Structure prediction request, 413 residues.
Amino acid sequence: MSATISADVPVFAEFDPLDPEQVADPHRWLKEARRNQPVFFMPKYGWYVVTRLDDITRIANDHETFSNRMFVTVPEVPPRYRDRLPNGFPMKVQLAAADPPAHGRLKRFMQAALSPRTIAAHANRIRQIANTLIDEMLRNPDRQANLVVSYADRIPMMAIAALLDAPVDDHRRYREWVDASLELITTNPSPARLDVLAETLVDFDTFVRTLIQERRERPGEDAISKMFAAASKDDALGEEEVLGLVSSMLLGGTDTTSTAIGNMVWSLLTHRDQWDAVRVDRSLLAKAFEESVRFRDPGRGPIRLATRDTEIRGIPIPKGSLIQLCTMAADHDETVFDRAEQFDIFREDLKIAPAWGRGIHMCVGRVLAHLEGEIALDTLLDRIPDLELVGDGARSYTPQLMMPTLRSLNVRW
Ligand code: HEM
Prediction:
């Protein structure tokens, strides 16, 4: 980072999002931050953290001062893969990493791909997927499962496959593509490792290019056909852009939604009266999902880059600084939510949880995530209404700075 940090910058010394205790229960520390140091710097990780919703909203609406440019850094393709990836890695174009005006154009294509109508057209397929996964789970004679591995983690990948009108059974391949893409953009892989990642991403590249070819010839009701339908002669959509948008769907829409589904089941099972309330009144499904996302945000919050010297709540922020809009903290902002620390699907002060972000980059996949979350819960309530946690569910999260992804939630029936 190029910025220099002056001596009067507030630092919250005890705060470390990767400390196991804070991974398990981050809200104790986030509450203290909101109250005593709503904006602070983390010397260990090199970025500022902003914790109150009003500050986050202001920053998210000022994309000239706070850019999304730094979001991903994609390495060069290794020489022996250049003939198979002549245009670079397939996640080079990322919606979340674009600033206006490029951002608005790409977002329009993505909104066409993820429109409520396109998504509704795939609802039955997603319900079928949820039922098939439960059939498989119920075959376990031990009558227990890790719900993340057997259910929550598979639904988002299979739902995106369904939306692409591609085979849904290949979810392991999707997982490999997501993991390889994340590793490529968030770590500094050795040359040997880069080769392995390139091999996996050649597979993704070929898969999407084949779909593109098919959809150009025979458009359908799938996400790629909808992107092309939103293009025009004056505003053609390039193949690299479609690749980037499909990659954006996979990177934005898998671990987030899987963790949200798992967290929702955990929240409801630890508030059994609310599980029962949704069981008897399914009109509560949407509220249950939205409140779960607020109560346990799947992410910690997106990052921005200061394009000039600025300030947040009077704290000077030098040009070149990285700033995390900590939506996880804003979800429990007590100046916005009554009894913010309580899980309550009946709350009336929640419309759109801070967890979806604010401003022009606000989540474009919210309708899809809701559909997946609501179908996942509806199907569980129909098929395994007496589901319960094994002990406390032995929840575990990956120690990731941006997104503590849920890896296990043990349940029985
Ligand atoms: C519970 C699930 C989800 C949560 C909590 C979530 C959260 C977020 C947040 C906070 C942002 C804003 C990023 C920023 O401000 O820089 C975002 C953007 C985005 N999300 Fe989601 N997301 C979820 C599900 C999905 C799904 C299902 C998809 C698509 C399949 C998706 C695709 C995207 C994309 C492409 C962006 C970038 C939008 C832009 O830059 O304009 N997300 N999401």
About this structure: The CA atoms of residues 214 and 359 lie 35 Å apart. The chain has one domain: 20-412. Residues 68, 95-96, 107, 110, 160, 248-249, 252-253, 256-257, 260, 293, 298-299, 302, 327, 355-357, 361-365, 368-369 surround protoporphyrin IX containing FE (CB under 6 Å).
